[in-house]
Amino acid sequence: MIGCLSVSHQSAVRSQNMNSKIGCVPKRSGGLAALVVDDDPIVLQCTGGMLKNLGFTTHMAGGGVEALALLKDSAWDLILTDYAMPVIDGYQLGQKAKAIFAVPRVVIMTGHCQAAVAQHTNDPYIDGWLFKPFRMLHLKEMLLSIGLPVDSANQSQAMGELESQPLQ
After folding, report:
1. Which end of the chain is more exposed for a tag (fewer CB within 10 A), N or C?
2. Which strands, in side-by-side order, build the sheet including 32-37?
3. β-strand partners of 59
């Protein structure tokens, strides 16, 4: 069972370290490829698990600098990134992802209130915003609203398991 609240910090960090080696990019298995970027390893694990259950091949980066290195190595269908990160924030990452690497969809996750990010909400580099905490259903609705399909095969069981647990 994937549960956002049951992932230990230590296992999330271990998994992040194993999955975030530069050059280790997802192998396309017919699905869409998503890069999840957040400086919080628990958010990385939870969000990556949600995307996998919606049919995405996922890879994780612990920050904007690491994400930019990964963008050079593979084609991505979606970047789902935290807004407030050190060095390169999610907005800057979204701009670079679209302008330099032609990533088709960028969604920013944030714990800030809508008023704090209002200046960026109609920006051409950002396709959507998810306000934390969010649930898998919110993620699914966001993906559909920006034109990305979700896999319904894994979805029903995963929705039951994850829907009751918001992303922190």
Report:
1. N
2. 56-61, 32-37, 78-82, 106-110, 128-131
3. 35
Matching residue, tokens 């990019």: 25
CB atoms within 10 A of CB 134: 18
Q: Is 85 helix (H, G, I), strand (E, B) or coil?
A: coil
Q: What distance in Å separates the CA atoms of residue 165 and residue 168, rounded to the nearest whole number?
A: 9
How many angstroms separate the first and last alpha carbons of the chain? 17
Domain boundaries, the chain: 31-162
- CA nearest neighbour of 84 among 43, 30, 145: 43
> Is the peptide bond preceding residue 166 cis, with omega within 30 degrees of 0?
no
* Coil vs helix vs strand at 25: coil
- The answer to whether 5 and 163 have CB atoms below 8 angstroms apart is no
Distance between CA atoms of 89 and 95, rounded to whole angstroms? 10
Specify whether the CB–CB gap between 73 and 23 falls below 8 A: yes
Q: Calculate the CA dihedral of residues 50, 54, 57, 59 and round it to 10 degrees.
A: -20
pLDDT digits (tens, 9 = 90+) for 39-81: 999 999 999 999 999 999 999 999 999 999 999 988 999 999 9
120 vs 106: CA distance, rounded Å? 13
Residue 19 has pLDDT above 60, yes or no: no
